[in-house]
Design goal:
By secondary structure, this protein is an alpha/beta fold. It contains 15 helices and 13 strands. The protein has helices spanning 15-19, 22-31, 46-49, 63-81, 95-104, 116-125, 138-142, 144-148, 168-176, 198-209, 223-231, 247-256, 266-273, 287-290, 345-360; strands at 6-11, 36-42, 57-61, 85-90, 105-112, 128-131, 183-186, 215-217, 238-240, 259-263, 277-282, 307-310, 313-317. The strands form 2 sheets. A 7-stranded mixed sheet has the order 9-8-7-10-11-13-12, with helices on both faces. A 6-stranded parallel sheet has the order 3-2-1-4-5-6. The radius of gyration is 21 Å and the shape is globular. The termini are far apart.
Length: 361
């Protein structure tokens, strides 16, 4: 195709999906020699979208507005994007995002469902499409448009780099607390079914406290995070930063940290992009799709196991069968809202301690 000058990238899913599009954005920006790239994202992911370099403009869609005045929002958004782009790329297979892609781009590329009953009309109107594959890592799904565009690439999860000149506030906070080297512990997530229970979390924090290295507990200012903030035990080497740092600050903290310990969430993927040592605690997530990507091995986890290590990443996932369907690591929360998978704190700590001792030798 003729080299596009204006490109729209549509990512109407979660923070993790938006973040894991960084490689795609950077590759097409370089390959097409600095085109204007606009994003269309949900408004609850706009904070992560604003941290990308190489982005010209961000359009946002609000599910709250959808409830109040859906038609007006749809009309306004379509007017902003209609045939304004040489190329539109949609990374999500939902009907709405596919329609946006068709309307926005002179050439449109989109993910579609494998179910032809849902996707037959999408195949008719899209210029190019690929199947959204839930058995494949989200990074690889997001890089599929490059195959269609015949753009060669390495299967690497690129980081969002914050300029060093913006480190001052975070470094000052660390200095005030007399923190030099440290490990991040991130106990929160967007949903309760991903969060390690309080009793087990407290036990793990007591173990980690014995390492005699600062453990910085991170989290945002959402209701679920602030509840956890109140529950964190007061221990000599535990520093509770929940609600005290911005998303940009977190990127800096993660960059400065020795390792990440915590939940399957955006913060885990940030650490993976920075090639940090990771100890990830998984609930019932699809591990093939959402496990941390290892840039050193250029792969993710492929099977469910109680504990597994690949490259710089260790994952803990319960060996207990799902209480709903009976499968181990089924990848489905079945509309339940609790973390019902037992992972022993001592098992997590043993792996962390082994790594830390080898680091200190």
């Amino acid at each position: 195709m003729k080299k596009p000058k204006k490109i729209l990238l549509i990512i109407q899913r979660s923070n993790g999906d938006v973040f894991l599009s960084a490689s795609l954005i950077n590759i097409i920006y370089e390959y097409f020699e600095s085109p204007k790239i606009d994003l269309l994202v949900n408004d609850d992911t706009i904070c992560i979208a604003r941290l990308f370099s190489n982005i010209n403009k961000i359009h946002d869609f609000s599910y709250k507005k959808k409830q109040n005045n859906q038609l007006r929002q749809e009309i306004n958004l379509v007017m902003k994007i209609f045939k304004k782009y040489d190329l539109s790329i949609n990374l999500t297979a939902s009907d709405r995002s596919v329609i946006y892609s068709i309307l926005a781009g002179r050439v449109s590329i989109s993910a579609i469902e494998n179910d032809n009953r849902k996707s037959w009309w999408k195949k008719l109107f899209l210029n190019y499409f690929y199947l959204y594959d839930s058995s494949k890592h989200i990074l690889l799904n997001n890089l599929e448009p490059l195959r269609i565009l015949n753009i060669k690439h390495q299967r690497l999860q690129q980081a969002i780099n914050i300029p060093v000149k913006e480190y001052a506030a975070v470094e000052r906070k660390l200095k005030i607390n007399s923190i030099d080297k440290f490990i991040i512990f991130h106990p929160s997530a967007q949903y309760n079914y991903k969060i390690y229970p309080k009793g087990l979390r407290d036990e793990l924090l007591n173990f980690l406290n014995s390492l005699e290295i600062p453990i910085i507990v991170t989290g945002g200012d959402a209701k679920i995070d602030l509840k956890i903030k109140e529950e964190i035990p007061s221990l000599s080497n535990i520093y509770n930063f929940i609600g005290e740092t911005s998303l940009k600050d977190y990127f800096i903290l993660s960059k400065l940290a020795l390792a990440y310990i915590g939940m399957d969430t955006l913060n885990m993927h940030i650490a993976a992009s920075q090639n940090k040592r990771i100890f990830a605690i998984f609930g019932p997530s699809n591990i093939r799709m959402w496990s941390p990507w290892s840039n050193t091995l250029m792969k993710s986890a492929q099977i469910n196991k109680p504990s597994q290590t690949y490259g710089n990443i260790t994952i803990f996932q319960s060996s207990l069968p799902c209480i709903v369907c009976g499968l181990i690591g089924c990848g489905n929360n079945h509309n339940r809202n609790e973390f019902n998978y037992v992972i022993e704190p001592k098992e997590i700590f043993n792996e962390v301690e082994l790594w830390y001792k080898s680091l200190c030798q």
